[in-house]
Amino acid sequence: MEVAIRDGAIKFLTSLGENAMPLVLEMVQGALRRLEKLESSGSTGGVTDDAATTKARLCDLRPIWDPARLAAPKGVLLKAVQDKDHRNATINDIPARLDAIHQAIQSQDSKAAQSSVQDVQSALKAYYHRDLAILRVSGETLDLETCFVNLAIVEAPAQRERRVNMQAPIPLEQLFDKRKLRDGKEDIPKTVLVQGRAGVGKTTLCKKLVHAHQTGLWKDRFDTVLWLPLRQIKAFKSRTLEELFHEKFFTRGLKQEGAALAHELAVSAQRGRVLFVLDGLDEIAKDTRCDDSQALKEFIRLLLEQQHVVITSRPSGLDRSLLPPTIGLELETVGFSAQNVQDFLSKVLSPAAAKTVQDFIRQTPLIQGLVNIPVQLDVICYSSDSLPTEGPSITMTGLYQLMVRKLWCKDALRLRKSAEGETLTQEHINQLESQEIDELMATEMQHLGYLAFKGLVNDHQLEFDEEALLSTFRDLKKYRATGNSRHLPPQMLEIIWMPAQATRSKPGTFST
């Protein structure tokens, strides 16, 4: 009997290869059968250790040799036992041999897992390389360190009157520190809801979370931080995490290893080592209320109910019925502080231009509550050379018109607009009067005006797919070709009438 077990062990140790795991399982099962016979006969058969103890050790090890596991490389297993004298193996050696092999596989698994995590991190870092850039109105990119995000705790969020505690802001690096949560308990928040108005920095927060982890923060808690704009989910066919990871993150230049990376990321998520940053719950809420959206709704819930989640949303479009019950912390992005405004100006403008904007803000009380919204402050900075010196006399409408016209000038240059057969340069565009800019960009103004109207009609739609854009162009093309207003809603005429007046050649038609 002992010889048979020894021969089985030697056969296993000398025949390792792609079938290693089934062979190990066969050996363990064989050893167990022989031990059971020994027990039933009441004889230890020369086994010096207690047979029951040996059997227990083998039973404890048996799950390790599940044939469903991938076979370990031959060299790793052989190395674990190469210093053993296989020809002198006895039944007592089996558990010890298995322990040694088990430890070798565990060590290999640990190294392989670490390597796989690093592969996933490298692939995601390459994927996010461009997406993490903050694009300014001017077209330049902004360093993430220049982008300030201020988070304040929302107190009594379930009540009608939400109170934001501005006296206790949470620095980004302390977001996952232990604190008092909504249920009154002290713990580390696992699900965080962040609300904020348009333009105050919710998406910037998402990018900063990814960047912070890539540069060393929270490495002890998360293998990966995933930023997922929820409005993109409906465009994917995926309805499992692994499918989504493959489709979104690992198809770009990763044909061979993409599936393996997606699988490893899904395993990491299952272990609670992934932080999901779900951006824009309000932008997907309407899609989950459609009659045919049950699959989408269930998938969104799957994402929201992951072990570690940060959710962003505008307050106005938030559907609380979608929120998981595990929300431990509710925050609000509150825009720039007065110091943030000063720091931002000093980083993106020359000293002279920064002083011009600072003076304009100080002299114009109307906009002092506007500049804490980062995107609006950036537009004001971009328009610094056009700001009026008589700040107190400007209206909000006048200020917006000034900023929009400055943006149209940028687009005119980018679109290589021409006049009298010559492509306009920056110098030419800077010399144009307001009416000339309106004439130059009339077609684009009509298109954007119509899209804005369509967005208002469609429950404040923000994203337009290719079909929606083509539909818009067809509507406007019919109107310009026929001059028949029945192709457009009456309210739409008011939207496109003013910017198009400068180019109107005769009643009912617009030149392009």
Structure explained in plain terms:
With 512 residues, the chain is of the alpha/beta class. It folds into 3 domains: 2-109, no CATH class; 137-335, 3-Layer(aba) Sandwich (Rossmann fold), CATH 3.40.50; 337-394. It contains 19 helices and 13 strands. It has a 7-stranded mixed beta sheet with strand order 4-3-11-7-10-9-8. Strands 1-2 form a two-stranded antiparallel ribbon. Helix 3 packs parallel to helix 5 (93-131). Residues 190-317 form the NACHT domain. InterPro entries: DUF7068 (IPR055496), NACHT_NTPase (IPR007111), P-loop_NTPase (IPR027417). This is NACHT domain-containing protein.
Task: Fill in the CATH topology of the largest domain.
Answer: Rossmann fold
Number of strands: 13
Give the neighbour order of strands across the main sheet.
Answer: 4-3-11-7-10-9-8
CATH class type of the largest domain = Alpha Beta
Write a brief caption for the model.
This protein has 512 residues and is α/β, with parallel strands linked by helices. The protein has helices at residues 2-14, 20-41, 51-61, 74-81, 93-131, 202-214, 241-249, 258-270, 282-285, 294-304, 338-348, 351-363, 374-382, 396-414, 426-430, 434-440, 442-457, 466-482, 490-500, and strands at 134-135, 141-142, 151-155, 163-169, 179-180, 186-187, 191-195, 224-229, 274-279, 309-313, 327-333, 418-419, 422-423. The strands form 4 sheets. A 7-stranded mixed sheet has the order 4-3-11-7-10-9-8.
